Structure to design on (1374 residues):
């Protein structure tokens, strides 16, 4: 599968033959990113993997040092480098902690691109990667098909059967656990609104916004997409669902497959070119969209397009907050806590806006979560590729979740699955909700609907 | 009198007036066949070099207030007195540091600093007789250690004459310094077994603008009352410079009332001192009685307090034996030690005046009685300390009794390191031989 | 956290893995390279292996093994040291203490806590803050540095002006000696344990006398009141004079920090800007704490002194949030240099406070002489300067020039009776500069002490003391073949 990579290297023509130390593939890492690091170590304690292992090569500083060492020709791109570079959750907490604003996450993604080419995936990992990252996520119809299959599995009694017969025991533990917390699959909004590309605002239209429906999001969490649409229209936004949009590519870029990332980016950039606002309800996707320009560092034409595109992207919570959302009037009597998704807090610097939305709802009692911006271990498909570390990170996270709350709110679907897993494993009964769902419920209640949380 | 022909050799580097033969030995031991009085560092070095090369033993003394502290030899060949090696070398008032010769009387130093509204933040016993060198070498401290720390927190630099006559500097003249090992620490409290402290550089603190001491007496005698008050007061954000408990015997001597008494000292601007006194008032148990001594009254109180410990310069007590024991325990365990001091005094038929700091864990017990009574009481005090995970060392005792009790209370597991350090620095055991723990 | 199996025939690696377990040892070059330096990056050297013991027994067993097999070894905490103390110059086995990070015991009534060496400094304060207590030493790296490392370096911090450095807060230590023997000093933290003050000697011995495995520290009660003042000056001299006058007025501030124009440029360009004016020559960050009833008087005095010295603007923090912002800006100052320079080298000289103006002038001269910018961020209250020499290591010769400039700054400090290091330690970085302040005999007096503890010199060799002859950095300890 990596053979296509080399063919496509021409995509970044200027650097196709250049090299930087032992980085020899196109799309070279940006040395100024590691030059900013003065090795002070302020990032160490922010890093969830360092917390678990105490190992420097599993810390932001250590990783930057290793990546720099390859650039200096002191290390080769070898299989032994995979562990330090790919164990990173890409949670960006280090970027928040860094006094010099070193873009560790961006650097990690660039180097993963190099490393994946030098050390192609093999065996079942390659297969899984091919099937999911290339075969399914970028193709809404296939995802939709997978979703229907999953729905069939859940609704037909097969799930019950599988659980009862112990078939699940044949799966690796972490997959079996994931199975247990899969949300029930609804109808993707892309399918639902296939013939209605514009959903009118309630009342006067103030502006028109497009939403990124997402790939997995729309299959697994179509109810959140629905809630997002309702909340946006409630606040005077016409919502469009542009047809050619695709997966944001974050998972590919995290995995080092920058080429596919670029392909998806281009498709999205073109798909959304006629809209002014691109609203995202998945923190990981939003962060990726805002970072599209990084993918085109060596391609001035697309870089410029990506810049223009990125400027239009906003997370739904910040968008609502900044455009003066209507504070709900109905009460939701509930105690809850808020978890900062990494790609919201660290990736996009969005912390106070979602909290402000939640706190605007009458009757909501917000309990602060210590270290709320600590990664939960979800990190895209990290919980599938690094189950043991993801589990350990989740364990630390759960230690900080207050016991006496009914809901845990957040702004990223990956986190929602992971936190649901944490709640289940700890035998707790908290429900996991997306921030816009809370607002949606409050608005619905305001309209006299019976809302049961 | 033995013929000491080698004494003339001393005259090669000392004036005859600096050399004095001793005919009789001091009952506290730690004496010398001759006493020499160097007046310059080179003279100290010359004496040591001579002794080290000619196999002579040297004891070191300031003015002798701590003569009864440790030591298994009645006399050495030479008693090196620093009495005439005194004076301030440099007072950098703007930098708040002072460098002083070891033989300087502690009180003289404080008086020299006072016009600058500065002080050395130590409150040793007998300040008008003890020398700064002795205070540092014996690591003496008083109740205000709670607020200001001990010698190791004030000393920033030393000049030390090694047993072979080499002069070594440790630390420096700056208040913060981590260049090389923190060698200052090695010599503080080393009882002069590693070298002769020649010059000492200390960091200074501003003199407090206002001072008071609150005396809180507990007529009930119930240690639990004291404990619960102490715990609640020490948990406030007040900043007492001392929080010292006196046992009834000592309290009687200092205040005239034989009941457990807490001395809580405050040093700050006047407002802040009164504010803190009010906190004591608010938290004190109803039965406790409170008196406040302010300003000069407080200073006078401490002047008296500072002379309750035995002093090696004074004549021996005529009726019975006098001893001083230093006990280290974890802070609040001081209460147990003081309570024990009362019980032990009864059991051993001795008089024990004791005090200890609830915020730092050091107690001093002054035992007065018959030889056997004093020995037994010291043994019991030690057992009480050890039961609490602490220690007891004897700070003052006549030489004859030091043969009968290990004043240092045995060797720690890491004694080989202490021995190793001594061997490196003083391989010939020239100075203060057997003065310190484990006979080093 | 991959599953590891030991894929090497090296018998030492295999033996060490048997002691600590296969998941607690690193030996591949790709992992080891992360350990080739600490916060001091000028020298880099690969360790032989890195082990992660989880108990005193494991530390002792590793040390015993190294001792018996003449393998050089050293201990490492978070690796934030700024003088190279944890750099494995001799291909050491690095004993990383990051997995010994438990808070073992807290006893607030007696104001003490017991921690393992890998416990992070700030976490201790965070663990007792709800009861109003804190751990005083606060090096700028306190977010991530370990208390074990603080003990090794005798770490200071912004607030040590009033409260002292690490050594003033250590009550007891458990130590693994270089031969693997375990000793305990100070027991449960009783004051003045009889014997030479080994606590004092070990604290700040830069990991050359033993490896600390358990630490009893003193905790302090929070001050009742705290006020922080920020003062902007148009002349460095005015700021310096203000520092001197505050101290000589009998005020003991909890902290008294200064930053010059270049430093301000960096912190304002970095992650925690405060909005300091760019055109001021220096700023002072002054904090006083204590009894509420007395604090206003101190603040009034300080404001008056600032005004006497032509302060352009002076303000008192109006909220805890504002105060925290000022401090975050200051405490991330070193790292912030990354925002204006690819590399920096920080020096750590100490001078008598009253000599501040002349030494700052001298540093400015050195900056001109070497054509390198030097930023100054420092603990003005205790005369502890941190000249930050800015350079670009990728430019040939610039690293050497920066090192020479740094060394000359230290010479200037030594010349006024100061020290070459106030809190960062000597490490590799300043060992030659030890000669600026100590004679050969004085250095020998110190190495003699080291030999008592560390006779084979396998533990962290080549640090702290200048060695006769050149190229000392690459010289192996005598026992190593």
């Amino acid at each position: 599968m990596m053979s296509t990579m080399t063919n496509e290297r021409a995509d970044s023509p200027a650097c196709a033959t250049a090299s930087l130390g032992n980085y020899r593939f196109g799309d070279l890492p940006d040395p100024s990113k590691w030059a900013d690091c003065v090795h002070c170590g302020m990032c160490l304690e922010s890093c969830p993997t360092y917390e678990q292992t105490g190992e420097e090569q599993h810390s932001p500083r250590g990783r930057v040092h290793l990546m720099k060492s390859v650039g200096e020709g002191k290390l080769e791109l070898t299989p032994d480098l995979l562990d330090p570079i790919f164990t990173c959750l890409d949670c960006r907490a280090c970027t928040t902690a860094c006094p010099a604003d070193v873009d560790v996450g961006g650097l990690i993604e660039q180097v993963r691109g190099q490393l994946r080419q030098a050390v192609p995936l093999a065996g079942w990992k390659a297969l899984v990667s091919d099937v999911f990252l290339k075969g399914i996520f970028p193709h809404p119809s296939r995802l939709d098909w997978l979703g229907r299959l999953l729905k069939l599995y859940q609704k037909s009694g097969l799930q019950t059967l599988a659980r009862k017969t112990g078939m699940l025991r044949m799966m690796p533990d972490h997959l079996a656990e994931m199975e247990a917390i899969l949300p029930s699959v609804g109808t993707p909004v892309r399918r639902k609104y296939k013939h209605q590309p514009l959903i009118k605002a309630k009342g006067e239209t103030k502006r028109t916004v497009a939403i990124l429906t997402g790939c997995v999001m729309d299959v697994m969490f179509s109810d959140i997409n629905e809630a997002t649409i309702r909340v946006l229209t409630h606040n005077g936004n016409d919502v469009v669902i542009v047809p050619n949009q695709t997966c944001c590519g974050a998972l590919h870029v995290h995995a080092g497959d920058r080429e596919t990332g670029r392909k998806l980016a281009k498709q999205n950039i073109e798909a959304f070119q006629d809209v002014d606002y691109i609203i995202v309800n998945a923190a990981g996707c939003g962060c990726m969209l805002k970072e599209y320009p990084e993918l085109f560092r060596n391609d001035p034409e697309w870089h410029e397009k990506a810049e223009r595109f990125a400027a239009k992207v906003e997370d739904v919570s910040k968008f609502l907050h900044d455009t003066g959302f209507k504070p709900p009037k109905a009460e939701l009597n509930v105690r809850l806590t808020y978890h900062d998704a990494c790609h919201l807090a660290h990736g996009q610097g969005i912390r106070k806006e979602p909290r402000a939305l939640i706190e605007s709802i009458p009757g909501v009692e917000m309990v602060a979560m210590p270290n709320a911006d600590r990664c939960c271990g979800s990190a895209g498909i990290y919980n599938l590729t690094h189950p043991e570390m993801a589990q350990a990170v989740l364990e630390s996270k759960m230690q900080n979740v207050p016991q006496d709350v009914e809901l845990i709110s957040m702004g990223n679907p990956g986190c929602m699955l992971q936190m649901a897993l944490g709640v289940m494993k700890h035998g707790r009964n908290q429900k996991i909700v997306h921030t816009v769902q809370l607002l949606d419920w409050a608005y619905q209640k305001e309209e006299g609907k019976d809302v049961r949380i | 009198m033995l013929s000491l022909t080698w004494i003339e050799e001393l005259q090669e580097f000392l004036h005859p007036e600096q050399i004095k033969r001793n005919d009789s030995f001091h009952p506290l031991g730690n004496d010398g066949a001759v006493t020499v009085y160097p007046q310059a560092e080179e003279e100290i070095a010359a004496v040591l070099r001579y002794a080290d090369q000619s196999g002579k033993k040297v004891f070191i003394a300031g003015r002798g207030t701590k003569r009864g502290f440790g030591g298994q030899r009645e006399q050495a060949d030479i008693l090196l007195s620093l009495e005439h090696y005194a004076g301030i070398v440099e007072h950098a008032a703007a930098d708040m540091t002072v460098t002083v010769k070891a033989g300087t009387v502690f009180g003289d130093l404080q008086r020299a600093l006072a016009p600058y509204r500065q002080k050395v933040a130590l409150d040793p016993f007998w300040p008008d007789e003890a020398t700064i060198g002795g205070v540092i070498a014996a690591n003496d401290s008083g109740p205000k250690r709670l607020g200001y720390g001990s010698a190791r927190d004030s000393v920033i630099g030393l000049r030390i004459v090694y047993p072979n006559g080499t002069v070594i500097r440790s630390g420096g003249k700056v208040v913060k310094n981590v260049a090389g090992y923190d060698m200052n620490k090695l010599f503080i409290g080393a009882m002069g077994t590693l070298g002769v402290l020649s010059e000492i550089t200390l960091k200074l603190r501003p003199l407090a603008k206002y001072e008071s001491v609150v005396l809180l007496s507990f007529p009930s005698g119930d240690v639990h009352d004291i404990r619960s008050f102490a715990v609640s007061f020490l948990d406030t954000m007040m900043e007492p410079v001392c929080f010292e408990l006196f046992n009834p015997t000592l309290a009687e001597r200092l205040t005239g009332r034989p009941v457990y008494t807490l001395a809580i000292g405050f040093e700050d601007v006047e407002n802040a001192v009164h504010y803190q006194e009010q906190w004591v008032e608010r938290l004190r148990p109803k039965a406790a009685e409170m008196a406040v001594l302010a300003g000069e009254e407080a200073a006078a109180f401490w002047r008296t307090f500072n002379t309750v410990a035995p002093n090696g310069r004074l004549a021996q007590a005529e009726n019975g034996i006098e001893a001083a024991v230093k006990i280290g325990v974890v802070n609040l365990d001081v209460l147990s030690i003081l309570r024990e001091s009362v019980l032990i005094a009864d059991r051993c038929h001795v008089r024990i005046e004791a005090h200890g700091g609830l915020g730092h864990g050091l107690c001093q017990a002054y035992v007065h009685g018959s030889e056997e009574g004093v020995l037994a009481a010291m043994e019991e005090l030690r057992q009480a300390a050890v039961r609490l995970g602490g220690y007891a060392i004897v700070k003052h005792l006549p030489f004859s009794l030091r043969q009968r009790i290990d004043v240092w209370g045995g060797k720690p597991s890491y004694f080989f390191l202490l021995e190793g350090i001594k061997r490196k620095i003083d391989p010939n055991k020239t100075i203060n031989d057997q003065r310190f723990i484990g006979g080093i | 956290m991959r599953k590891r199996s030991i894929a090497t025939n090296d018998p030492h690696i295999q033996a060490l893995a048997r002691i600590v377990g296969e998941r607690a040892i690193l030996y591949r070059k790709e992992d080891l390279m992360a350990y080739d330096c600490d916060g001091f990056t000028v020298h880099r050297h690969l360790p032989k292996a890195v082990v992660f013991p989880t108990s005193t027994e494991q530390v002792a067993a590793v040390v015993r093994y190294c001792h018996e097999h003449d393998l050089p070894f050293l201990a490492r905490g978070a690796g934030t040291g700024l003088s190279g103390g944890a750099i494995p110059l001799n291909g050491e086995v690095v004993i990383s203490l990051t997995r010994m990070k438990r808070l073992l015991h807290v006893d607030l009534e007696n104001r003490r806590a017991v921690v393992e060496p890998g416990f992070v400094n700030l976490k201790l304060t965070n663990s007792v803050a709800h009861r109003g207590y804190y751990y005083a030493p606060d090096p700028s790296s306190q977010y991530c540095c370990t208390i074990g490392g603080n003990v090794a370096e005798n770490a200071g911090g912004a607030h040590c002006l009033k409260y002292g450095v690490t050594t003033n807060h250590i009550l007891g230590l458990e130590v693994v000696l270089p031969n693997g023997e375990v000793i305990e000093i100070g027991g449960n933290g009783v004051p003045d344990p009889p014997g030479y003050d080994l606590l004092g000697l070990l604290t700040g011995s830069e990991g050359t006398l033993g490896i600390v495995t358990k630490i009893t520290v003193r905790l302090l009660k929070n001050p009742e009141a705290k006020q922080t003042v920020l003062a902007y000056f148009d002349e460095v001299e005015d700021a310096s004079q203000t520092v001197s006058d505050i101290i000589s007025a009998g005020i003991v501030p909890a902290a008294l920090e200064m930053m010059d124009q270049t430093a301000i440029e960096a912190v304002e360009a970095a992650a925690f800007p405060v909005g300091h004016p760019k055109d001021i020559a220096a700023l002072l960050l002054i904090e006083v704490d204590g009894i509420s009833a007395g604090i206003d008087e101190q603040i009034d005095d300080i404001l008056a002194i600032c005004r006497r010295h032509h302060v352009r603007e002076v303000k008192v923090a109006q909220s805890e949030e504002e105060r925290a912002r000022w401090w975050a800006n200051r405490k991330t100052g070193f790292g912030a240099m990354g925002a204006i320079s690819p590399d920096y080298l920080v020096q750590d000289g100490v001078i008598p406070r009253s000599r501040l103006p002349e030494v700052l002038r001298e540093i400015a001269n050195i900056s001109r002489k070497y054509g390198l910018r030097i930023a100054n961020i420092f603990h003005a209250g205790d005369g502890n300067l941190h000249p930050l020499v800015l350079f670009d290591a990728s430019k040939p010769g610039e690293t050497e020039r920066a090192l020479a400039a740094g060394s000359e700054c230290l010479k200037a400090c030594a010349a006024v009776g100061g020290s070459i290091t106030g809190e960062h330690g000597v490490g590799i970085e300043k060992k030659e500069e030890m000669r600026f302040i100590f004679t050969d005999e004085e250095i020998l007096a110190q190495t003699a002490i080291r030999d008592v503890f560390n006779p084979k010199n396998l533990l962290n060799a080549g640090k702290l003391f200048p060695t006769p002859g050149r190229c000392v950095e690459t010289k192996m300890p005598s026992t190593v073949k």
Q: What stands out?
A: Residues 434-474 of chain C form one domain. Chain C touches chain B through 91 residues (CB under 8 Å). Chain C has 16 helices and 18 strands. Confidence is low (pLDDT under 50) at residues 469-481 of chain C.
